[in-house]
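Today's session is about reading a structure prediction critically. Students often jump straight to the picture, but the first step is always the sequence itself: look for stretches that repeat, for charged clusters, for runs of hydrophobic residues. Only then move on to the predicted structure, which in these notes is written as discrete structure tokens rather than atom positions. Here is the chain we will use throughout the hour.
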Amino acid sequence: MTERIDAPQTESPRPAEGTMGILDHLHDLRKALLYSIISIGICSALTIYFAGDIFRILTLPLMEVYDRIGHDQKLIFTSPPEGFMTYLRIGIFSGFLTSTPLWMFFMGRFIWLGLYAKEKKILMIFVGFGSALFLLGGLFGYFYIFPIGLRFLVENYRTATLEALISVKEYFSFASKLIVAFGLAFELPLIMFLLGRLGLVSARGFLRAFRWVVVVIFIVAAIFTPPDAVSQISMAVPLCVLYFLGVLAVAIFGKKKPRDTQ
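Below is the predicted structure for this chain, in token form.
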């Protein structure tokens, strides 16, 4: 009789690095989303505690307008839970903003795993400059555009028969929409720069499309700003300036097409 010899069992080879399956990607995406939500929740819990102080900072432009016109009327709320819900929204909104570096890090780390070296460099530029431009745009909207809009809307339309009674809910909605709108608007040069670096659009192409871009800019300004002409124009004009800065960046740093050699 011959003795049966079993073939030695060998471990199945591990997939090569960079060849992760769809389930592995979904698992990493779930972890990135979970960590992002946790970071937003922790920061929101902290900012909710300071929601009153944050709201006092947000109301400084309005208080200055009230001082100019001799108005001693405070902000009001028109339903019992409105004051509480507004403070809660302020805390969550502030928590989301303050946690931006954290959740961008977690989501960026997930995207980072599947990128080539050149793409990783572009991602670093996008995250770094994108965060800085969003912060700059939000500060510009709050410290410059917001007071101008308030002075125009409150002072010019206050008459002997018309008085400003602003609720905390509407005031916070007005302020937060303006801050976010200008933060996003300041991303325009970065988006144009990335399109230029990828060779998708040239500086000449951006210039040819300028007339249509102006129309789109005013439509976007009408959508993302409060419904008054001052806020819309105040957003549209800086956007046009940012567009030309983006064209300049593409002209300097954009991907150059090789010249044909005879």
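Discussion point for the tutorial: The chain has two domains: 25-147+159-176, 187-256.
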